[in-house]
Amino acid sequence: MNVEPPAGAAGSGAVALPEITVEWPQTLAPTLRDSVLDAHSLARDDLVGALPGLWRAVDEALDLAGPGSLVAESVRHDAYEGWQVAALPRYDLEGRVRARDRGDGAPHTAPQLRDRRALVRALVDAVAERPSLDVRDALHMLDVFAGAFPPGLDAVCRRLLGHDLRHGVAAGLAPLHEALDRRTSEGVSTRCYRESGVGSRKAKGDPATDNEDTAGAFTGPSGVLRCAVFDGVTGDGDGSGGTAAQAALEQVVRRWRLEEAADGAALETRPGEPQAQVSGDEHRGAFRPGELIGELDAAVGRATAEGSAAAVLATVRPDGTASVVSVGDAEAWLIRPLRVPAGEIPYTAWKLTPAHTGFAEQLRVTADAEGEESQLVSFLGGGAARWAHRTFEVGPGDLLLLASDGATEPERDRWFGAVLAELTAQLDASGRPTAPALAAALVQRAEALGGWDNATALVCAVGEAKD
């Protein structure tokens, strides 16, 4: 390490700053972004599952170098060596590493805000189409592209920024990773609850057309739950959005009945033979999300030339495998119990769907995107060019939320996942049935925030398998 004071610094008002050259004693692994996107040493969808190893390395780096020593480029990964954290210690004017002082605290103290922001940016940069400009930009991308990013990454980054982490990053994020990795081996049962409201500022005095949201759920003898929320869109308030949403619901119910018949046929057994187990896409007429969206798009086009609809649909199978498919700005969230010490909110939530809006399209290429949050670039009714599909697993205690955008109205400086976790915890503690109370509370919240839009929340409660 070399220290070269700048030449020609004269005058009592001049500021002299040393030039410090850092020489790493070992070869640096690629940055996390290069590792994922270029070297492919870590698969994009495996990122969240591999993070506990990174947190241990981060704790070790902060113990050695002190808090405030991380930048986004500090997070590195190699296919053979695994995680590497290139910490940048603080230096004195002679170019030597400053010793940690009492103000730094004991080992495994909370990282500074700079460290937290650096970690968030490194994680988002590893999966985004472009590097983030700053942490605000990274959080915008997490919100908009959540369903396209690895599931749970938004929850990880928000906990990094919001939890005290006073016992270290690994300890602070362990409960969340346990929740993210939780699996069921006994199977599940499901029950759905729906609540919908017009919104006082959206109401025009015609009950037949004021609420352009529709929702439905269907569970047949196979035990497979199929549910959906459609958010009708119309420009002049003529009710054509409601026509579009209703046409989509009627079409998907027809498809659900055909799929259920196929599931039932696959489950039939001959006398004396054990009953076959059907899961995933093994039933006849395997699920193809693009085909489903195409059917719904055509049904809306036949029903109305003016209206359109956003859509989010989910399937939950008795073995706990689940999937969502979405188009537009309707959202799906998974809310899961969190095993944490008393005093902490015992729930977490993460988003399962991205947004197909003008703002999202701008954000793909620039951090300066603004406006157009409600302008759809993909929708049912002649414009379903982009759709999203995500598979995941659910277990007893989970809540799966499907909602129109009116029910997920953001609050200033509050992530909606945190709102969901806190609201679920409050309802659970009140002794009321959590799932139906949550659906009602989200609609009431939408009205309390101004009642600007129709708000529909469909909450699926996941329980233990029934005998």
- Average of pLDDT: 89
DSSP summary, beta strand count = 14
Biggest β-sheet: strands ordered side by side in the sheet: 5-14-13-10-11
Structural shape: globular
Spans of 5+ residues with little confidence (pLDDT < 50)?
Answer: 270-285
Radius of gyration: 25 Å
Summing up helix and strand content along with how strands pair, one would put the structural category as alpha+beta
Q: What does the largest sheet look like?
A: 5 strands, antiparallel
**Beta fraction:** 15-25%
**Helicity, as a percent range:** 25-40%
Helix count equals 11
**Helix/strand order:** EEHHEEHHHHEEEHHEEEEHEEHHE
- Terminal Cα separation, in Å? 69 Å
Quick synopsis:
The protein has 467 residues and is an alpha+beta fold. It is built from eleven helices and 14 strands.
Describe this structure in words.
- This protein has 467 residues and is of the alpha+beta class.
- 33% of the residues lie in helices and 19% in strands.
- The chain has helices at residues 32-39, 47-65, 113-127, 135-144, 153-162, 169-181, 240-267, 289-303, 358-363, 416-430, 434-448, and strands spanning 2-4, 19-21, 75-78, 82-85, 188-197, 213-219, 225-233, 308-316, 321-327, 331-337, 347-351, 388-393, 399-403, 455-464.
- The strands form four sheets. It has a five-stranded antiparallel β-sheet with strand order 5-14-13-10-11.
- A hairpin with a 4-residue loop joins strand 8 and strand 9.
- Helix 7 (240-267) runs antiparallel to helix 8 and helix 10 (416-430) crosses helix 11 (434-448).
- It is globular, with a radius of gyration of 25 Å.
- Residues 270-285 have low confidence and may be disordered.
